[in-house]
Amino acid sequence: GPDFSHEEQAGRPAYRGQLQSGVHMAVLVVYSFVLSPVCPVAPLLSYLWIMHRINWDKAGLSYVFQRPHPLVSRGGGFWIDSFPLIVTMACLVQVPLVLFCSRALSFWLPGVTLEERWGAFAGLEAAVLLTA
């Protein structure tokens, strides 16, 4: 079992509480809901990262309670590092599409109706989702 001696426990970092331990996942979930209209893949990727994190913590807890000297886990790894890239790519793709289909398009092409603009937006959005 684990070594619960005072010397071993003194070397561990202090537990910051349940709120602090889950705050990264809570912020990630909030951002995924906020950004889901911009990048429909963001909730799926954040869900995959959360599941990875849960499995990582489960493995870490199993290691702590089976062996006397646990190692520090590395954290989210690929998923948490890729989240800013996903948001940046979503902005680079979606903002030009919204600008293209907005009222600014009627300034350059006055003959294009609102339905045609949003039809073009829906078609381009489908093309983005199919190529992703």
TrEMBL record:
<protein>
    <recommendedName>
        <fullName>Anoctamin transmembrane domain-containing protein</fullName>
    </recommendedName>
</protein>
<dbReference type="InterPro" id="IPR049452">
    <property type="entry name" value="Anoctamin_TM"/>
</dbReference>
<feature type="transmembrane region" description="Helical">
    <location>
        <begin position="25"/>
        <end position="50"/>
    </location>
</feature>
<keyword id="KW-1133">Transmembrane helix</keyword>
<feature type="domain" description="Anoctamin transmembrane">
    <location>
        <begin position="20"/>
        <end position="104"/>
    </location>
</feature>
<keyword id="KW-0472">Membrane</keyword>
<keyword id="KW-0812">Transmembrane</keyword>
<dbReference type="Pfam" id="PF04547">
    <property type="entry name" value="Anoctamin"/>
</dbReference>
